[in-house]
Design brief:
Length: about 350
């Protein structure tokens, strides 16, 4: 059992106020009206896309085109953090790296009261809610395409070149406002889970002991690896790849962060050991080093990063438990068996980290 590919951030608050997040007021008319106000007139066809964290829609336009509108979950990111995500995507696009950048927006007159567009690139639309507050919305071009076949050594080398190009841009300077992936996030996840009292009470002492020992291992590994944190995609895995016009695209920069380069590489590997995994890793790094030097000390971070992901994933579910989608998606989360399994996984990670 491995943690979900979702790579959540931990909110400043410990709970998700599902009743107040505006999603209950997010009707098709709201989506159409917001995009119409920036000159993107829909033809009435809207498809909601899979996303636990935000609400994301594909909107077909009257001119025959299509766009993707992302309605950000309130309380997750600040405006400054969203602006940094958008600026990074635009910077990558300018460097001819295949990502999906946000569109620059302009409100058409007269526009509703309290609607505005913010950010250095004018990419974040603030749309008023009837009951107060605003939706924060970004819009990107719709990229049709297919899931790429990442199996051969050549495919892994091509993937490595894409990640290397992302990191060559990301290494220029760090994010100022977005989080930095570090062992402290593991401790924050533990504190969140204990504060929300989601761990089965009978298992909580054993789970907490394993979790804190695991984070101690993460701390030691980060200290040994050293190196500087750079701007990353943050959630690079096969589900965020798209093949279009024989070009491999890396999509969804929602979890962009500062961190060790290994974070954008390890999730593409199959399993935790074996010759196939080693071949994949070697091919991935061959392509990566066409654009970026790779410090072999980073290899020791694979299991520590997996451990952080395991803890943060649990904290993310706990924070979102009031959202009706989460109990449906993770039905065993509030059962003793789940926390017994989590404790076993943490002990396995402790052994793997050494």
């Amino acid at each position: 059992m491995n943690p979900s590919p979702t790579n959540p951030s931990l909110d400043e608050t410990h709970t998700d106020q599902a009743a107040d997040n505006g999603y209950s007021q997010l009707t098709p008319d709201t989506v159409l009206e917001a995009l119409d106000a920036v000159g993107l007139r829909g033809d009435g066809r809207i498809l909601q896309l899979n996303s636990y964290e935000n609400r994301v829609f594909r909107l077909m336009l009257e001119d025959g085109g299509a766009v993707v509108a992302k309605f950000y979950r309130p309380g997750r990111w600040s405006d400054a953090q969203i602006h940094e995500e958008h600026d990074f995507a635009l910077e990558l696009t300018e460097a001819e790296v295949a990502v999906m950048p946000p569109l620059r927006l302009q409100l058409l007159p007269p526009g509703p009261a309290h609607a505005m567009i913010s950010g250095p690139g004018a990419t974040l639309l603030h749309w008023p809610l009837p009951t107060g507050g605003t939706h924060r919305i970004s819009v990107s071009p719709w990229l049709g395409g297919r899931d790429p076949d990442i199996e051969s050594a050549e495919a892994f080398e091509r993937l490595g070149r894409l990640i290397g190009r992302v990191h060559a841009v990301g290494a220029a300077r760090p994010f100022k406002h977005r989080l930095t992936l570090s062992p402290s996030l593991g401790l924050q996840a533990i504190d969140t889970l204990l504060a929300l009292q989601v761990v089965d009470p009978a298992l909580a002492p054993r789970w907490e002991s394993a979790a804190r020992k695991a984070v101690d291992g993460v701390v030691r590994a980060f200290e040994r690896a050293g190196g500087s944190a750079i701007r990353l995609h943050g959630d690079a895995h096969r589900g965020n790849l798209l093949e279009r016009d024989e070009t491999l695209h890396l999509v969804d920069l929602d979890d962009a962060c500062n961190g060790p380069p290994m974070q954008d590489l390890w999730l593409f590997l199959d399993g935790q050991e074996g010759e196939d995994r080693q071949r994949q890793l070697h091919a991935l790094l061959r392509g990566y080093e066409d654009f970026m030097d790779f410090d072999d000390a980073q290899l020791a971070l694979i299991e520590p990063l997996r451990t952080l992901r395991l803890l943060r994933h649990s904290a993310w579910i706990a924070q979102r438990w009031n959202d009706p989608a989460f109990p449906i998606a993770f039905p065993g989360f509030d059962t003793p068996n789940h926390w017994a399994d989590q404790t076993v996984l943490l002990h396995e990670q402790i052994d793997r980290m050494g």
